[in-house]
Design brief:
Layout: H1 3-12, E1 37-50, E2 58-73, E3 78-91, E4 94-110, E5 113-120, E6 155-165, E7 168-175, E8 194-199, E9 210-219, E10 222-232, E11 237-246, E12 250-258, E13 261-273, E14 276-287, E15 300-311, E16 314-325, H2 351-366, E17 373-385, E18 390-399, E19 404-414, E20 419-429, H3 435-443, E21 445-453
Parallel strand pairs: 8-12
Antiparallel strand pairs: 1-2, 1-21, 2-3, 3-4, 4-5, 5-6, 6-7, 7-9, 9-10, 10-13, 11-12, 13-14, 14-15, 15-16, 16-17, 17-18, 18-19, 19-20, 20-21
């Protein structure tokens, strides 16, 4: 990792002419006269109901949120952007009041070289629905929102982009501090004696950071990229912690969340054939060998192919995601733990091995490695009605191998003044010992959302 600083210094010496300051502008926003500062954002309120079989519906989440986005255009030298969100309400039966600095970064341009430093959301990949090359940005897998982008969490990093040729853009991204993805194991049904410990932080130094490099190639109707990432997976692996047993306090089993390093070699492409958008993405992930097995995932190769076609007001998106796990060894799911065995003290010395085996299988579920090969399809039709003021869509995700599926219909009404209303339903399902079965009680149910942009 010491080579990271050398790469950054070399990039600072590059020369050429300036690029654009921002890759995308704010939707809406105000700009008086020749002011270089524009302000926009939105306010929204949302309610999510929980539906559990044989139970009455209950209010899962109810909140109000305001986002204030500010962009400063400094001309050819660069600029700055910030997105601040204020959130109040209840979520998963807990009161929540928070302010989130989702993004805050500055841009600086030196001819063909563009630098961006600060807290930012950086997404890699061109495929629809699944992006195995997208490894720089952590995610909140349990956020309640109708917007998929709200899953992404800002992370502090330095991005350097260099326009080497008209068709070639080189990019290097340096992540000095590890930021974990948020996975709410406390919302998953587990025995009362199991305790999930906080994520173990690997450190706050360059040697414990991550680096990504990418070359984007753009040739008219065809574009693509080759990428490489070396650093931590944002979703930690589970590992056994302390197991204690006492006559007064009973059994206590700790489970640690341990980040692990990996390398990811990726490629993606996008083009149009006969009026149909064709996208693909490929990634080979290799966890480093310095982490203890069996608690980290095996190496894997993942591929995605997606199609996007419009038929007047109707748009169809379809995607296929395949995965092959290297060095796969079949394993049966561990049996359900019977607390009655605790009455026999002779069993106690074997408890750590029993729980280690169970935690190892939990990791297989978490990283979708319960089968050597797996196949998942996505299908999302959407229909624009009444001059595009009403959108009706339905997303279906089906893991053919594990028999998990998600049904997600949604209706959105938009008014030209920036007002919109959405309502929909999420339904996750799957057999025992699958990810969708884990989270179904936390997500299944209808929702409604009102949003006003300014």
């Amino acid at each position: 990792m010491k080579t990271i600083l050398i790469i950054a210094l070399l990039l600072l010496t590059c020369q050429a002419y300036p690029q654009g300051v921002f890759e995308s502008s704010l939707s809406g926003g105000s700009d008086s006269g020749n002011s270089r500062l524009s302000i926009g954002g939105y306010t929204r309120g949302a309610a999510f109901l929980g539906i559990i079989p044989e139970q009455d519906p209950y209010l899962q989440s109810l909140y109000a949120e305001t986002s204030i986005k500010m962009k400063y255009n400094g001309g050819s030298w660069g600029g700055a952007f910030t997105d601040i969100r204020f959130y109040t309400g209840s979520e998963y039966n807990e009161k929540v009041h928070k302010m989130d600095l989702r993004e805050a970064y500055a841009d600086f341009n030196i001819n063909r070289l563009g630098l961006r430093f600060g807290k930012q959301i950086l997404s890699w990949g061109r495929a629809d629905g699944f992006n195995p090359t997208d490894n720089l940005t952590p995610k909140n897998y349990f956020v309640r929102s109708s917007e998929p982008d709200d899953l992404k969490i800002g992370n502090i990093l330095l991005r350097a982009q260099y326009q080497a040729l008209d068709f070639l853009r080189l990019e290097v991204d340096l992540v000095p501090w590890y930021a974990p993805s948020l996975y709410r194991f406390d919302l998953i049904e587990m025995p009362a004696f199991v305790r999930i410990n906080p994520v173990v932080q690997p450190g706050f130094a360059w040697d414990d950071g991550s680096i990504g490099a990418k070359a984007d190639l753009i040739f008219g109707l065809v574009e693509g990229a080759l990428s490489w990432y070396s650093g931590y997976d944002h979703l930690p692996a589970l590992a056994p912690g302390a197991v204690t047993m006492s006559p007064t306090e009973g059994l206590d089993v700790g489970i640690n969340q341990i980040p692990y390093r990996q390398q990811v070699f990726g490629a993606d492409f996008a083009t149009t054939l006969l009026g149909t958008g064709l996208r693909g993405e490929f990634a080979y992930k290799v966890p480093d060998t310095d982490s203890a097995r069996p608690f980290k995932p095996n190496p894997e190769f993942q591929w995605v192919v997606s199609l996007d076609r419009g038929f007047g007001p109707l748009r169809l998106v379809a995607a296929y995601n395949g995965k092959w796990v290297k060095d796969f060894i079949p394993a049966d799911a561990p049996g359900e733990f019977d607390p009655a065995i605790l009455a026999d003290p002779s069993i106690w010395p074997m408890l750590e091995g029993m729980f280690a085996n169970q935690i190892g299988y939990y990791n297989r579920i978490l990283f979708d490695q319960t089968h050597e090969t797996s196949h998942t399809v996505l299908f999302r039709p959407s229909l624009q009605l009444f001059h595009e003021s009403l959108e009706v869509e339905a997303a279906v995700i089906w893991n053919i191998t594990t028999e998990e599926y998600l049904l997600y219909p949604k209706v959105t009404w938009k008014h030209g003044s920036g007002i919109q209303a959405s309502m929909g339903y999420q339904h996750y399902a799957g057999p025992e010992n699958t990810r969708f079965n884990w989270i179904k009680d936390a997500f299944n149910g209808p929702f409604i959302e009102f949003k006003a942009s300014f």
